[in-house]
Specification:
By secondary structure, the chain is of the alpha+beta class. Helix content is 15%, strand content 47%. It folds into two domains: 31 residues; 182 residues, Lipid/polyisoprenoid-binding, YceI-like (Lipocalin, Beta Barrel), CATH 2.40.128. The protein has an eight-stranded antiparallel barrel with strand order 1-3-4-6-7-8-9-10. Strand 6 and strand 7 form a beta hairpin. The radius of gyration is 25 Å and the shape is elongated.
């Protein structure tokens, strides 16, 4: 059985070890090691179009959110696995690729015999002929937790540029350092006011606020 002096010595040693451990953890955090995305590879990533979706929702008549999507878009991510805030992101969208699944020519009570996708892509709405690209370019990236962040960037739509914030979640990473292949999966969401870009038709019958969602898989581009 330990005598009192031995017990005090053991206790003091334990306290000293705990303090050393706390100091080490704090030093690691302060040095930025916690910024690293473990297992990810830095480099230029492009989306896998077979596993990428860009959708939007807008409230219609206060009854339900109308849901549509864009089928032609590209995103390029220059990813810094050691410090994601130094990454760069640019997204380009073809507004003529809007798809609504409107039942053209079908015998529904409220359906009109018109190409509703072409109507939205045309003058008075997305005006794709005059403004053939919707563009988003990141300006700053903030990491809010291990797998979440906020990307502030400039959205250009109908010739108007506004700063917006995209809330993103890193769902997972897959990397093979032997052959320099990698993948990243993200979910993203933002809300814009379409009137700020000059599109104010039928407000408030069709809401001003538009929710935008992205689900994308990025793969390391080894062809550069």
């Amino acid at each position: 059985m330990q005598n009192p002096i031995q017990q005090i010595t053991v206790l003091a040693t334990a306290i000293a070890l705990a303090l050393c451990l706390h100091t080490t953890v704090y030093a690691n955090e302060a040095s930025g090691e916690d910024r690293v995305v473990e297992g990810a590879i830095s480099g230029t990533y492009r989306i896998d179009r077979t596993h990428a979706n860009l959708t939007w929702k807008v409230m219609h008549k206060g009854l339900a959110k109308y849901v549509a999507r864009f089928t032609d878009f590209e995103a390029v991510l220059e990813f810094d696995a050691d410090d994601p805030k130094n990454s760069k992101l640019e997204v380009t969208v073809d507004p003529a690729s809007v798809r609504t699944d409107y039942p053209q020519g079908k015998p529904y009570k409220f359906a009109k015999d018109e190409d509703f996708d072409a109507k939205l892509a045309g003058v008075g709405w997305f005006d794709a002929a005059a403004f053939p690209v919707i563009n988003f370019r990141a300006t700053t990236i903030e990491r809010t937790s291990k797998n979440t962040g906020k990307i502030t960037g400039d959205l250009t739509f109908l010739g108007v540029s506004k700063s917006i914030i995209l809330d993103v979640t890193l769902n997972g990473t897959q990397s093979n350092f032997d052959d320099n292949t990698g993948a990243l999966g993200f979910s993203g969401r933002t809300v814009i006011k379409r009137s700020e870009f000059g599109l104010a038709r039928f407000i408030p019958l069709v809401a001003d606020e538009v929710e935008i969602y992205m689900e994308v898989e990025f793969y390391l581009d080894n062809e550069e």
